[in-house]
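Incident review: delayed structure delivery

Summary: a single-chain prediction request sat in the queue longer than the usual turnaround. Root cause was a stuck worker, restarted by the on-call engineer. No data loss occurred. The affected request and its eventual output are reproduced below so the record is complete for anyone auditing the incident later.

Affected input:
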Amino acid sequence: MHALRLKRVYEPPEQDDGLRVLVDRLWPRGLAKEKAAVDHWAKEAAPSNELRRWFGHLPERWEEFAARYREELERPESQAEVAAIRRLLRESRVTLLFAAHDEERNNAVVLRDVLRAPH
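Output delivered after worker restart:
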């Protein structure tokens, strides 16, 4: 497996990003598609709208959010998207892109941990 990185989608693309995979359900506000340089948009691997709204990026909800999001990642449509990202990782470095301000508590962190776990 190649390297797996996380990065805010608003940061400029870099040569060593490898394949850039957006893991948010909504397109990042105010960001042109060309500027984002997204290679793959993994909408089905993102938290549901309901879970995203409930979390609201409140730090006190982080642990519960992470647990609920892991459960959502077990859904068939999410599993297919996770498998697609794993295939990309076999071919190249992958950078998971997210829009959240909090770089330590966001869905990309949970997804990275899921992707790194033995399956």
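Verification: The first strand starts at residue 4 and ends at 8.
Action items: add queue-age alerting; document worker restart procedure.
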